[in-house]
Amino acid sequence: MATQQQKFIPLIIILGLPLVLMGLSYGLIYLYKHQSLNIPELVGTQTVGQLVTPPIKVEKLNLVSADDQPFSNRDKTAPWTLLVLPTSPDNVIQSRQMHIALGKHMPKLNRVYATEHALTSHALEQFKNDHPKLRFASGLQADPLFNTNDYLLIDPRGWVMMTYAKGTDEKAMMDDLKHLFKYAQ
Question: pTM of this prediction?
Answer without folding.
Answer: 0.74
